[in-house]
Amino acid sequence: MSQLALAFFEWGMSGIMSLRERVAMFVIVDVLSFSTSVDIATSRGATVYPFPFNDQQGAEAAAAQAGAILAQPRRSIGSQFSLSPCSLLSIPAATKLLLPSPNGSRLSFSAACTPYKSPVLVGCLRNATAVARAANLLARGRPVGVIAAGETWPDGTLRPAIEDMLGAGAILDRLGRSCSPEAQIARDAYRSAGAELANLIRLSISGRELIDSGFPDDVDLAVDQDASVSAPLLMEDGYFAA
Rounded to whole angstroms, how far apart are CA atoms 91 and 121? Predict the structure, then answer.
């Protein structure tokens, strides 16, 4: 197995830290919903600036500095842009959007701050093929790290989320590379899900949370495989369609 052509898979911030000196680039996967939202916005010509969650004052200052609209909480009333993918379906081209999120945004910042300033893509089920193609081009035969964001338990510890493993597995499947054991398991989980993939995600903890909260359409958008040809690339602190 060539170490240069390997694809790795890990979870969350600790996964980035473990791979940051071993890979040429990262793919961040947060299917419900950061990655899906970024894909939808950038595929319509918007720029998305990731920002850590739960810092309203800092987010407002960062949005003002970037000349960006600050996304509102998903449950806000009205037609404001938010972490809900459905809210971004009509986002105008050239919009600058600051999008706080507790997982995907935070990981995006960390992945971009590796010692070698590794390229960072954001991937999901909607753009798995496009992201795999872009990752292979950017990595130029060097190792790629695919990071599943996961969620958090009430005590703040990582909760592995099957939608992120399956999204990562879809990208690993399309990369066509030799896989680390962890990456092979994620890839094989995606392959074994087959026609049940969408239903598994709808019935997952994260899927049920969104559906029960009144956002079933967000889940429908997230499970629409290869609906997009966008490969959002983090450049100058913002994601652009590559």
Answer: 21
Ranges of H-type helices in the chain: 12-19, 34-43, 56-66, 104-112, 128-139, 162-175, 181-193, 197-203, 205-212, 216-222
How far is Cα 215 from Cα 76, in angstroms, rounded to an integer? 12
Give the span between the Cα atoms of 149 and 222, in whole angstroms.
15
80 burial (CB, 10 Å; 0-12 / 13-18 / 19+) is middle
With a CB cutoff of 8 Å and minimum separation 6, the contacts of 123 are 27, 28, 29, 35, 131, 132, 146, 167, 168, 171, 231
| Mean pLDDT (the chain, rounded) | 93
User: For residue 157, what are its two tokens?
Assistant: 């510890």
**Residue 49: both structure tokens together:** 């600036």
Distance CA 19, CA 10 (A): 8
Torsion on CA atoms 227, 230, 233, 239, rounded to nearest 10: -90
Which amino acid, 5? Answer: A
| 147-189 pLDDT tens trace | 999 999 999 899 999 999 999 999 999 999 999 999 999 999 9
pLDDT value of residue 1: 46
Q: What are the tens digits of pLDDT across the range 69-90?
A: 999 988 765 668 999 999 999 9
Is pTM beyond 0.85? Reply is yes
In the chain, the amino acid numbered 170 is A
| Reported confidence tier of residue 53, pLDDT bands at 50, 70, 90 | confident
Alpha carbon distances (Å) from 217 to 79, 87, 175, 211: 15, 10, 29, 8
Closest CA to 49 of 108, 97, 91, 95: 97
